[in-house]
Amino acid sequence: MVRRLVLVLGDQLSPDVAALRRADKAQDIVVMAEVRDEATYVPHHPKKIALVFAAMRHFAEGLRRDGWQVAYTRYDDADNAGSIPGELMRRAGETGAQAVIATEPGEWRLIAALQDCPLDMTILPDDRFLCPRADFEGWAKGRKDLRMEWFYREMRRRTGYLMEGGAPAGGKWNFDASNRKPASRDLLQAHPMAFAPDAVTEEVLALVEAHFSDNFGRLRPFDYAVTRGQARQALSHFVRHQLADFGPGQDAMLEDEPYLNHARISAYMNIGLLSPREVCDAVQAAWEAGEVPVNSAEGFIRQVIGWREFVRGVYFLEGPDYPRRNALNHQRGLPPLFWGAETRMNCLARVVGQTRDLAYAHHIQRLMVTGNFALLAGVNPAEVHEWYLAVYVDAFEWVEAPNTVGMSQFADGGVVGSKPYVSSANYIDRMSDYCGGCAYSATTKSGEGACPFNFLYWAFLDRHRDRFEANHRMGLVYGTWDRMEPARRDAILSDATRFLDALSAGKPV
Ligand code: FAD
Ligand code: DLZ
Ligand code: SF4
After folding, report:
1. What one-character DSSP code corresponds to residue 247?
2. Domain residue ranges in the chain
3. Which fold has domain 133-192+242-313?
4. CATH 3.40.50.1000 for the 336-504 domain, yes or no
5. Using one digit for the tens of pLDDT, what is the confidence trace for 327-375?
6. Whose CA is nearest to atom 3 of ligand 3?
7. Whose C-alpha in 269, 291, 467, 469 is 20 to 30 A from the C-alpha of 169?
8. Listed residue (8, 40, 125, 13) closest to 389, CA to CA
């Protein structure tokens, strides 16, 4: 039998990934490669590159121990071809193999690159998800609106998670009303599990230091799990120590407490160290054992079988142009504060600072602080997308783009969300302790010291009135705007113009 190459990408580190299941351990050759094209398509956070490379090296070792022949290319190997197709061609030349088995990449760019590769390429569906692409397409077909909530209920029924008979456990599909409490230090339980780098990871850290030290983000300390065993420990730790209070703490934001009760396991799932099913099984088991309340179990499972699967479905359904959409025609450049330039806005300084240090921010920080600000300021969504794709350790386009371009920037015109996630300072003040230490006042709506979120919020709604006025979920806010004194509306709009001009001129805000 002719030998084949078996491609395993840096986010396909699952022992049962489709390409490995199809391959023949006795004669096929696994190809793994740290390459320039993947490491530079955006200026990834150094921690993200380190995580991917360290996990790839550990995974390759595991495959070898398991009897596979692995052709592994390190980033600084002299004959590194610099791209995934280039490495496949090089290995084909070395071994005489002409056929490649691959698992479908999570990004249109790389799918196209594999399809263009002149080798005999078999691309298998990536079946590490709970909802296959074809099933999502079937669910979406004929629907006017794709609402996550309906998809989620379908997924609950299909998977059986938190179901009692045919009904949702606790009598409700959604426990948001008892979740999402404002920030409070008693919400804190424990921090996610941290792992000291071993010799293999230390070698990767040195490599990342040598090649990527100009990228935004601090490499050290590096404490991410880099093996499946460590990721499983992190999952157990979360379920035992943090899950019970996950629901109430889900939306809270506290200075110096980046994780609260969040799991910090998205990157582990996204690169394949954990499967979404085993994550949900662990949560289901804790709920069945009476160790965690249904509101927290439900809040968590919704994120994984609901949002995570939904955004992947949307990414592939909508096609390769999705990340470039710009429904609101926003054209402002990404302000330098996103890359750490000085700002007096404490919430932004905190979230960007935490992102620089940890390559992590939780959902509400991404959505209601940095995302909210970029949307209100009218930043070009393609630039916002590239920023999120670069700076978070869990950022892969299939999950990042629908969250950023869709949910956060409304640049898809309403495919992911039915209305834009915008808010004034009131929301951030209620959910965080950021405003107390800020140079701006959250309760001042315009004029001296007013929080920019306050006037930018109204200016955004005013600017996009034609699009949003008819939205039944936004009618009330337009009513409030219309009832304001004209002089007050003018003051708000001129504050916004002054602020946005300063932002465009690159002045610190
Ligand atoms: P937890 O809060 O503990 O949640 C548990 C799990 O649920 C996560 O690990 C994640 O796998 C899943 N999850 C939660 N929300 C979402 C969501 N909206 N979409 C998909 N999965 C979700 N998530 C990514 O994995 N990669 C990204 O690149 C990414 N970019 C985002 C960009 C923006 C603008 C926004 C608003 C959200 C983004 N998210 C992304 C979703 C979410 O912020 C992260 O999944 C979460 O913060 C990861 O931290 P955690 O593991 O502690 O999550
Ligand atoms: C993110 C990433 C990085 C930084 N480097 C590599 C790499 O060198 N080799 C590799 O196989 N994969 C890498 N990845 C993950 C890919 O970018 C990912 O497979 C695609 O974005 C598709 O999701
Ligand atoms: Fe952010 Fe405004 Fe609060 Fe300052 S006052 S922390 S800018 S929301």
Report:
1. H
2. 5-124, 133-192+242-313, 336-504
3. 1.25.40
4. no
5. 999 999 999 999 999 999 999 999 999 999 999 999 999 999 999 999 9
6. 435
7. 269
8. 40
Token pair, residue 37, equals: 């094209």
Q: Decide: 347 in ligand 3 pocket, CB within 6 A.
A: yes
- This prediction has a pTM of 0.98
Pairing label, strands 99-103, 69-73: unpaired
- Count the Cβ atoms, other than its own, within 10 Å of residue 65: 8
Distance 344 CA to ligand 3 centre (A): 9
On the question of a cis peptide bond just before residue 320, with omega within 30 degrees of 0, the verdict is: no
pLDDT in tens, 62-103: 999 999 999 999 999 999 999 999 999 999 999 999 999 999
Which structure tokens are listed for 476? 């009330």
**Beta partners for residue 29, in sequence order:** 5, 69
Measured in Å, residue 456 CA sits from the centre of ligand 3 at 12
CB 48 within 8 A of CB 271: no
When the candidates are 3.40.50.620, 3.90.1180.10, 3.90.380.10, 3.40.50.2300, the CATH number that belongs to 5-124 is 3.40.50.620
CA-CA distance, 153 to 466, in Å (whole number)?
Answer: 33
Strand 99-103 relative to strand 4-7, pairing: parallel
Amino acid at 142: G
